[in-house]
Design a protein that fits this description.
The complex is a heterodimer of chains A (353) and B (287). With 353 residues, chain A is an alpha/beta fold. Chain A has helices spanning 40-47, 69-74, 91-101, 106-119, 135-147, 165-178, 191-197, 215-222, 236-244, 276-286, 300-308, 312-328, 335-352, and strands spanning 2-11, 14-24, 29-33, 55-60, 63-64, 76-79, 153-157, 183-188, 200-205, 208-213, 226-233, 251-255, 263-269, 289-296. In chain B, 80% of the residues lie in helices and 0% in strands. Classes of the chains: A alpha/beta (353), B mainly alpha (287).
Chain lengths: 353, 287
């Protein structure tokens, strides 16, 4: 549906978007995730033809946005970060104007306007001036404007910013509704939002696309191991030694800061295999007492922080130097670097792909 | 284009601007008609247009100040950029809407000579040529001021700069008589024009090299002419000022001289500044 190739945008010496490439398939919800100023809005502005690119190409449904802007724009409905509304018009007047500008014929215009107003639930406020509407309603008018004329792709730049929690839930369900008929691209710096609604996540940081995949795959890729948390009491040393005999466990962390004599153990299991039974047996063998066992799931948040943190450069350097030593030193405390190394490698592969 | 045109026209008439614009124009015309034709009993209605034209200094900048500056301020220009419309049709739609607001009071003042003709002789040919000139002058000034509005997001600034530009234009023909016509002065004047041109090229294209080439080539040509035959440049400076004076051509037509050159001049100004607005808006996309 949309193909972005080697997109770069410079503002003078500042590189806002740096060599981004990705493909958007029809019928899915895509989420641009990134901290403020990462280049999300710039990328969206270029895709929608509001901004030129310094280099690279964008093709929307076969139309090049720079060579055939009108054809490409007809396939896109766009809600910029600040909804572009003429505040001295009513939603009805505004949507009628946008419909005309989008080239809707007279016969279909009023029915199309009414249908988008019903979809976005603004029919009741259609004759009030936009400047008197609440932020949530303004946002809806913005979305109504974007979906008017049934474009194939709908691009929403931070659609839930500044809304109250109830409105956020409503807008999200509206977006999900829209995704049944349209391809949706949205951006956000709020992680749960993206992981909740989107099929695919594109993480942008400092103008670069650092990761793109489904939420599940991202978690798998960046946190390739499962961590099992144990709470035990009794002979911790013996217990840890007994557990170390299990092949699947790569690393055991001991946290004895807990109160009333219990100790927490974190078992790192790279293979994601279910070894709960083995663990239980070993603990019983060692004579310690197991009070609880759960599997800690890595959240997307960790990945987000990981890939967007400014320390990426530092990590890469560490990873390079530690590359050889990483394999042999899994037992003696360099695990952290080794982890960083694997993650960095994953990430590089991802970028190359 | 029609969508933009209708939206713009509607917004003129939902706000006070169009009403104020038309009221001021009609009241001023009414006052001058009363003084010239009713009180002094001149038999020449066209003098009214000549006298009223000064009101353009005030009302045209007010009419045009918001055209693009407001879109930019309200961030609605993004909508215009992402709608499937050509930039030229957006500009044309907005321009035509503003010209329509001008055309309505102009048409109304066209009724006055018919009323006057009930009580005396009116030379309709001269009257309507001067009405045409009056309208075209307004249309040309709207194009210029609309371009100025596209350069800033501050409406007030747009209005002030527009006022200054129209003000200078209003007096430029009178001032040209004081400008030295010697070839040296003309050479300096042309140099200033060339530098201004190069600055505009630089601003609109963001291409320093192109601007420098334009400046150097033109300056070299000018110097060559000046060194080879300075007499060619004699009287050029006042002439340039005269040609730039939109009001001067207007006065010629008001006093009964139908000058096709002036009409072409007004229309070229309209086309040129509409195009400059398009370039200025496109440029923002390429910033």
């Amino acid at each position: 549906m949309i193909e972005v190739k080697n997109l770069t945008k410079n503002y003078g010496d500042v590189v806002a978007v740096n060599d981004i490439s990705f493909t958007v398939e029809a019928g899915k919800i895509y989420g641009f995730l990134g901290p403020n100023g990462a280049g999300k809005s710039t990328t969206m502005n270029i895709i929608t033809g509001c901004l030129s690119a310094s280099s690279g190409t964008v093709t929307v449904d076969g139309h090049d946005i720079f060579d055939d802007p009108i054809g490409a724009k007809k396939c896109i409905g766009y809600l910029p970060e600040i909804p572009p509304l003429y505040t001295d018009m009513t939603p009805l007047e505004f949507l009628t104007f946008v419909g005309r500008a989008k080239g809707l014929k007279k016969q279909e215009l009023s029915s199309a306007v009414v249908s988008v107003m019903e979809k976005t639930d603004i029919f009741d406020v259609r004759s009030r001036l936009i400047k008197n509407l609440s932020k949530g309603y303004k946002q809806r008018v913005g979305i109504a404007q974007a979906i008017l004329g049934n474009p194939k792709v709908i691009i929403l730049d931070e659609p839930t910013v500044g809304l109250d929690p109830i409105q956020i839930v409503e807008i999200r369900s509206l977006i999900r509704e829209l995704s049944k008929e349209h391809t949706v691209i949205l951006s956000s710096h709020i992680l749960p939002e993206v992981s909740e609604i989107c099929d695919e996540i594109l993480i942008i940081s400092n103008g670069k696309l650092v990761a793109s995949d489904t939420a599940e795959n991202l978690i798998k890729k960046f946190n390739p191991e499962t961590v099992t948390e144990l709470v035990i009491s009794g002979d911790v040393e013996a217990c840890a030694n007994a557990l170390a005999a299990i092949d699947e466990i790569s690393k055991i962390e001991i946290d004895d800061a807990a109160e009333d004599g219990t100790v927490k153990l974190f078992l790192h299991i790279p293979s994601n295999e279910d070894i709960r039974q083995k663990v239980a047996e070993k603990i019983v063998e060692s004579g310690a007492l197991m009070l609880s066992m759960n599997t800690v799931k890595a959240s997307l948040e960790d990945i987000f922080l990981e890939v967007t943190s400014e320390n990426i450069g530092v990590l890469t350097r560490e990873a390079e130097t530690a590359e050889q030593s990483a394999e042999e030193s899994t037992e003696n405390g360099t695990e952290e670097t080794a982890e960083a190394c694997t993650e960095e490698n994953e990430e590089k592969e991802d970028e190359e792909a | 284009m029609s969508a933009i045109f209708r939206k713009e026209l509607k917004s003129y008439f939902t706000g006070p601007i169009a009403y104020v614009f038309m009221a001021v124009l009609l009241v001023t015309t009414g006052i001058y008609t009363m003084i010239y034709n009713l009180s002094y009993q001149y038999a020449t209605y066209e003098y009214v247009y000549g006298a009223v034209s000064f009101i353009y200094l005030i009302i045209i900048p007010i009419l045009t100040m918001r055209i693009f500056a407001e879109e930019r301020k309200q961030k609605t220009e993004q909508l215009l950029y992402c709608l499937p419309l050509k930039m030229s049709s957006i500009v044309a739609g907005k321009y035509l809407a503003a010209v329509t607001v001008l055309a309505v009071p102009c048409a109304i003042t066209g009724i006055y000579p018919f009323i006057l003709s009930l009580y005396g002789n009116v030379n309709f040919k001269i009257v309507f040529v001067s009405l045409l000139a009056f309208f075209l002058l307004g249309a040309a000034l709207i194009a210029v001021c609309m371009f100025i509005s596209s350069l800033t997001e501050n409406q007030i600034l747009a209005a002030i700069i527009s006022f200054i530009v129209v003000f200078i234009n209003y007096f430029i023909a009178n001032l040209s008589g004081f400008v030295s016509g010697s070839s040296f002065a003309s050479c300096l004047c042309l140099m200033a024009v060339i530098v201004a041109l190069a600055l505009i090229v630089n601003y609109l294209t963001k291409n320093k090299l192109l601007a420098e080439i334009v400046a150097i080539v033109l300056l070299a040509a000018l110097l060559a002419v000046f060194l080879i035959d300075p007499s060619l440049l004699e009287g050029v400076a006042p002439e340039i000022l005269n040609r730039l004076a939109l009001f001067d051509g207007f006065y010629n037509m008001v006093y009964g001289l139908f000058d096709l050159g002036t009409v072409v001049m007004f229309l070229s100004v309209v086309v040129l500044f509409n195009h400059m607005s398009v370039v200025s808006l496109e440029k923002r996309r390429w910033a």
